[in-house]
Each structure stands twice: as structure tokens, then as C-alpha cells.
Amino acid sequence: MRVKFLGTAAAEGWPGVFCQCENCRRAREAGGKNIRTRSSVLIDDIYKVDLPPDTYLHVLKYGLDLSRVEHLFITHTHQDHFYFEELRMRKSPFAHILSGTVMTVYGNEKVGDTIADMVGDPDYKLRFRLCEPFKSFKAGDMRVTPMKADHAYDQVAMFYIFESMREGKTVMVGFDTGWFPPETWEAIAEFRIDLAIFDCTNGPLEGRRGHMGITAVLEAKAELEKLGVLGPESICFATHFSHNGGLLHHQLEEKLNPHGVLVAYDGLEVEI
Ligand SMILES: [Zn+2]
Ligand SMILES: [Zn+2]
Ligand SMILES: [Zn+2]
Asked: 2-271: CATH homologous superfamily?
């Protein structure tokens, strides 16, 4: 499986879109891996997690052909994860999808309600599939299991575990998860994960409801190791960083790398 990090920031981006803070100033000055757009990953070119407002920038920056994406998994409807207005550009005259590829959008009820009119119009070439935590389903070559997140309490926020049936590899993509709810700990114990991506929004700041930071990520990793979900060969990444955490890329590496967690950055590609 080939996993590409398209963006690795929290809702505001880093530097934040309207922000004058010291952390954003330092990121602008340092550039490179410190410039983070809103979070999304692309797996094997046809599976995508979330549709952030920076999607068009991702298309330009990485030369993506989004008409190839067959399966789009939405974690929740916060604007940094579900900039649904962009889907309006899938229809003629805005797009001519010559391949005829239909894209299935997976998500909670709120996601389905939001795009109902587009799904009802065949010109969009969109399908919707309602997901519920812990109910696995097949999407292309993947067996996908949504997990319950501790986030966005006006809806069922989820994160996804992807098992490639072709390659026998498993990837967990966690953006806005918070510390996992008890039912998620119970369900996740059944998995063996090769690549785990954790919500590290808070960076060095404490707190684990809604989002995690460095301390919670390291505890979650240790807990998953104890459960046998992560083994010695498993790879762990932290992502979805907020400017309020303040640690630049190399400083995040100093805190996380010694504990076996790598720091994601925009454009990073991982092959497992
Ligand atoms: Zn977010
Ligand atoms: Zn800032
Ligand atoms: Zn959110």
C-alpha cells in the first residue's frame, strides 16, 4: 500500500489562514516541512480520507488526478475535513469525467444529508454509503472498519482502518480522534496494524478530549503495543498539528522520534 500525506495541519492550517501568532511567524520563516495544509491522505491513488479546503492546492502541488478516486471516506463534517462545496465541481460543465468513474462517499448521517441532492443527480457520478462504527464493509480491494472517535459531539465522528485484501497490510488513519472511547479500544484489539496515523493536534499541550497531543499519542501507542495491535515492525506517524502547539517539525521529531513515532509532513509518501 502507498500512503501519501496530502496535508498535515489542523483546521486553520499552519501558518493559520488569518493568524499573526509567533508560531505561525516561525513556520513561515522556516518554510519546508513547517508549512502544513489541512489534513488528508491518499491511499493507492483511489482511496482518499477527507476532503479539506486545501484539496485543489493538493491537486496542483502533487499533480493528482482526483477523477481516479473511487472511494472517499469522510471522518466528520468539520469544514477542515469535509469541504463539500468542492463536490459541486464534479458535474458538467465544471468537470468532464471521461472515464465515467463513480465516486462513493462514505460517512455518517450528517455527511449523507449534506450531499443528498448531489447523490440524487446522476451527473455528479456520486454515491453515498452510510457508515456506522465497528461495522466493516468492502470498498474495492479494502476491508474497511470505521472506529468511533471522541470528537464532534453533534454527530458520530469516526476514523477508519483499511485492510488491503490484496496485500495483507493494515493502515489506521486517525485525524480527529481524541483518546479512543472504550468501545473503540475493545474493537481495535482485534486488529494487527502495520501503519498507524495518530491525531497529534495539541502537540506539547495537554488534553485528550476531542484531540490528542504528544503525551496521549505515546500512551495510545503503548496501549496498542500492549494489546498486540502494534508489533515491532509497525510504523507510527503523528499528524493534524495545530499552530497553538508551537513545535516546529524538527522539534516535534525530537519529542516523538525517540519513542518510535515519526512526524508526518505535507507530501510525504510511505510504502508498506
Ligand atoms: Zn480537524
Ligand atoms: Zn498562529
Ligand atoms: Zn474536527
From this structure: Ribonuclease Z/Hydroxyacylglutathione hydrolase-like (3.60.15.10)
